[in-house]
Amino acid sequence: QVSILRHIGSGTASARRLMTSGRVVTPAHRAVLAMIVVASHAWRAVALARGPLAHSSAMGSLARGSLLSSSRVASTAAASIARMATVAPASTKAALGEHEDHPKYDLLKVESVDEYGALCALYRHKKTGAEVLSVIADEPNKVFGIVFRTPPSDSTGVPHILEHSVLCGSRKFPTKDPFVELLKGSLQTFLNAFTYPDRTCYPVASQNLKDFYNLINVYLDAVLHPRAIDDPLVLQQEGWHLELDDKDQPLTYKGVVYNEMKGVYSSPDALMMRRTQQELFPDNTYGVDSGGTPSVIPELTFEKFRDFHSSFYHPTNSRVFFYGDDPPQARLDLLDEYLSEFEANPKDSQIKWQQRRSEPWSVTEEFPASEEAKDKHMVAVNWLLNDEPLSLRESLALGILDHLLLGTSASCLAKALTESNLGDDLVGGGLSDELLQNTFGIGLKGVAKEDMAKVEPLVLDVLKKTVEDGFDKDAITASINTVEFSLREFNTGGFPRGLSFMLGSMSEWLYDRDPVSGLRFEKPLAELKAQLENGEPVFENLITKLFLENGHRVRVEMVPNTALEAAQLKAEEDRLAAIKAEMTEEQLEQVVKATQTLKERQAAQDSPEDVAKLPRLALGDMEPKTKEIPIQVDTRQPTAPGSKPPTVLTHAIPTSGILYADVCFDASALSVDEAPLLPLLTSCMLETGTQTKDRVALSQEIGTHTGGLRTATLLAQPAPEGGLVASPDSVLSYVCLRGKAVGEKADRLFDLVREVSTEANLDDQRRIVEMLKESVAGFRAQIPAAGHTYADSRIRARYSAAAYIAEITGGVSALESTKQLLKEAEEDWPSLNAKLRALRAKLVAADGIVINLTGDESTLAAAVPVADQLIASLPAARSIEDRKVVAWSKAPYADAATNEGLAVPTQVNYVGKGGQLYQPGEKVPGSASVVSRYLRTGYLWDTVRVMGGAYGGFCRFVPQSGVFSYLSYRDPNLVGTLDNYDGAADHLRNLDMGPDELAQSIIGAVGDLDRPMQPDAKGFTSLQQYLSGETAGDRQAQRDELLATTLKDFHEFGERLSDLNDKATVTVIGSKAAIEKANAGESAHPTMTPVDLL
User: Fold this and answer.
1) Rounded-to-integer distance, Cα 985 and Cα 987, Å
2) Which residues are catalytic?
3) Which site from 463, 701, 1001, 1084 is most exposed, i.e. has the minimal number of CB atoms within 10 Å?
């Protein structure tokens, strides 16, 4: 029951730390992505404890939180929350069908999870013993998943490599990569796989029943009958191999997972997490790296690889999950077609318990660092919390404790650490409860060497003092409301709800416990309330038992080493040189031949007969009409002479009584020089308190009365009619406060919006310095981990004012400006304080405000008058001078540097190249999205990922700006990748595509347009469409053109790319050695200006 919330919403740090994604799948790019969202801050009341960055691009983020309550719930906000509708009406559930006996399965039990209107049945397949959790829910976005318990015994990464490999062809579907074929021509809403330290998960989702069954068929055949266990070339491609094109060249390691993990091991946060896990679990499977340690991966042989599949990829060792509104008996029939050819084969895959030690210890690990960061150490204190199962009530209480300690920046432990001045930002992530045993870790990064020994005593002192004094009652109330709101809202962001259900159940089910118990929260919540009402010091007792009296505690110290990256590179070169030196001429020839054989296989096209075996949708299955989001636009009278009128947008959508509100201030009068201040100002709105509340009281107020507040800055080039590319000088800009609350709390929500926007405390120098240090530390961690997004931002900043502003407020340029702001805050505080005040005065006014409301009709009817009261309470208008719209359209985007190589401490590269594919005023046909998607899932996947060995290769095209970019992710190459980018033009110009392949490309693009959205996302998407000027007619025209795409459109797009090749600019974020080597070599690509970035 704790675990399900950790998979709701937008990000659990612990889940992200644990997962390794099998495939980088870029998100669908709707037309609305022309609206750039920057400077976005988390829902403060559901703020995440800061752990290492996710390396699961497929999952993005998974929510962190716990099931919470206290004695004050009944008398405060949760009384109104309890009125939220969370249970589907009985008639609705009955209409979906019932779970019945099936001749091939034993029906073990049927239980209703009323909290989420779900009817769950647990079956056991008679022949194999496979367990199946079948969930009936009123949810069209259907989910299937099969999970295997896969505990590794070493760090060769065999579970991770196998997870990649099984999707590379199977018995029934022998194409090279059915996974990619599904991406090309499916309406899938989720399609990926990921590896935990003890399990491997294969989930799919779709709203289309036929498509859903197609996906299930391909995935079941892939995991049970993969080509990989009979074809060593798959292991070589996805895992590792020795590569040698000519026997006189140096030997190299190549492989997708090998390069992925080199990128992971370039991250100091990831290195700390891995060393911590090894220390906490020295005696069980968690002590090795299921993702793979780069230096150990080459020890994996084909025999060990095949044996691992034989041992663990068997139905007896599986857990199978279904969720949604599809016929429940048909699920079981389909599954039995695959299971029935197996016999029961029980093998011991149980995870062994790690027994706790009695005395704490410490370890030291080095990490690669730049000269600028050579004195910035990291230290974290980590506990293994339990060596026996926790009760449901204990798990709930532990989740509460985690939120109270670290849930927001104002939580007691987080606040003490950030205010200590011992470091720049938090590290460690807090509670992790997805595995058999719970762990907890917290510390600081950016710590001076002489302060390293002070962090652990500080953490322990805070915990001891908390036990002595007890938790603040208001903090408990805020935490309760926050998490109960999240539980009842069940907002899983852009991911299927069924996926959250599946992952939540696995945290119990995988360890042979009841999967359904992990999905309920009402009963354990009530039990916990009773404890609290009786005055029991539940949380304080847990601190004493699990932390202060627990000797299984390790302090992990991370020491920066500026020479480590070069030393690692040399060690790999020396290892390979030694291997080559021991080879005979015949062995060298064999490696050259094997390299050529693999490349030929990778470049070969699948036969039409093999491709035809894949189950497909047809164009006739597509909906020709665009699904529109309801919107009503009401323009109010101007609040002052000469000012812009306020606008209220409403979207009548079922939301179970929740109001989603976006209050957007017109930012068009801000100057380019003021733009870098925006992230700091919006952070102050939520992080420094107000005139009447300190930041702790403000955080508690938000948590008690709302579902959270966050900020976002919206930037766009307004969309001209008819699908034309907008002028690069045109900028539409708003700064938004985004909040949510139950309808009865709308007045409190808008009061808080008014208070934080007009009365935020801009005088707290100490807190602002802390925030700026956190931001710099965040950039240092994020840029090497997600360099492709920063490279893309740099490229786009050269072609429009809107993208330029986005770059200087949220891209690489923002790192440098944040450093300057930090210096100013420390050395010239009055100047910075005055700038912040002036910026707020220019920004916050009713002049041109847009308020966007999403909710049930009755919720909206009550909320609109409250929104009007907010408008009336704000400053009516800016000064005449401040109203001048001069500003961001003058951004010097054309003066931005062109080709650049930004060096960071890493063993991989992020290679970007892009430019203006369609000029301002040109018409962009709807077919452009089909072609760019084809490149992403076809040509670039094959050349950059499969043959090049990068973890990801893709492209991005935004019609409103006309800018197209190529990007790679965790790439071992640089010049070779640029060559592949330039080859895309000829590939398209010479493309010969049959009608079936064309249809699949169109279908995949339609799927991108029709992605399911949660109610808040629908309202926010409609807001962006309205602000950018995109009409329903524009969207329908785009869809019509998309559905009418022809081969000629591919050829014409290729011609444009050919013209772009010599005009496009390059940004590479990668290792200094790779950038220098590329510049020193002979190639047709421009020389990059080298910059030491971090």
Assistant:
1) 5
2) 163, 238
3) 1084
